[in-house]
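ARCHIVE CARD
CATEGORY: sequence design from structure
SOURCE FIELD: tokenized fold
FIELD CONTENT:
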């Protein structure tokens, strides 16, 4: 199946879905389209609430595309790549509408950052999370602010340092990364449908003002995430990181 970002809308509820055949890992092209789509739907007067989801069954998002990471040749290319995740997170942050996350399976690295950037997040029991960046010589610099905002410095540090550990959906629920966790997709989707139908009828102006309150003290993130992307773009050029990525790909 070809990679895509697509939108469907009904009764004030817009669903943004992304997909990539390699466990929903995200190359620059998809990240750019996803950020633009979030901005566009956020400005659509016919949509009152957004659901952010991915295609497939047991993987929400495997993070960055390793094929593209290993092909980065200079720090400018590196910065451009990592700005992809920065732009998605900032698009979620600046969107005037509530974004509801639907996480059907595992999330790694940038995928954890994206679900952390939603305003209310549903998941299944299969949705364990991992920040593996340190294990390949970089770090979750770009996605870190979104994750730390949700779960706090201590839990974010634990995930960052223990870079090869999968943290369970129960752990993520307890720390505030997820809002609700379900046994399977069917139960989760049923609740998402009821939930979004309900909140889509709320006052859009009230939701817009609340969203600004929820995301207070993040106005500096445009510059912060750009600097983090630049730092990541430099680190990804190191021999350590290149060797680590190649070793991972060859497993």
């Amino acid at each position: 199946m070809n990679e895509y970002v697509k939108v469907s809308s009904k009764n004030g509820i817009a669903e943004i879905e992304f997909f990539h055949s390699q466990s929903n890992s995200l190359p620059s092209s998809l990240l750019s389209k996803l950020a633009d789509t979030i901005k566009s739907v956020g400005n659509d007067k016919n949509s009152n609430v957004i659901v952010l989801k991915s295609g497939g069954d047991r993987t929400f998002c495997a993070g960055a595309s390793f094929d593209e990471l290993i092909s980065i040749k200079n720090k400018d290319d590196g910065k451009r790549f990592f700005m992809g995740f920065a732009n998605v997170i900032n698009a979620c942050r600046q969107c005037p509408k509530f974004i509801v996350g639907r996480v059907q399976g595992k999330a790694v690295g940038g995928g954890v950052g994206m679900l952390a950037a939603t305003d209310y997040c549903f998941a299944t029991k299969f949705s364990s999370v991992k920040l593996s960046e340190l294990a390949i010589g970089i770090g979750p610099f770009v996605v870190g602010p979104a994750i730390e905002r949700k779960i706090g410095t201590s839990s974010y540090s634990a995930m960052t340092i223990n870079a090869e550990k999968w943290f369970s959906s129960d752990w993520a629920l307890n720390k505030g990364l997820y809002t609700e966790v379900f046994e399977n997709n069917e139960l989760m989707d049923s609740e998402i449908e009821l939930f979004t139908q309900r909140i889509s009828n709320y006052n859009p102006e009230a939701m817009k003002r609340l969203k600004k309150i929820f995301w207070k003290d993040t106005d500096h993130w445009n510059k912060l995430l750009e600097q983090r992307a630049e730092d990541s773009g430099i680190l990804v050029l190191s021999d350590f990181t290149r060797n680590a990525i190649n070793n991972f790909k060859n497993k």
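CARD ANNOTATION: The first strand starts at residue 4 and ends at 10. Strands lie at 4-10, 13-19, 49-54, 59-61, 98-103, 106-108, 120-124, 129-130, 180-182.
SHELF: design records, drawer C
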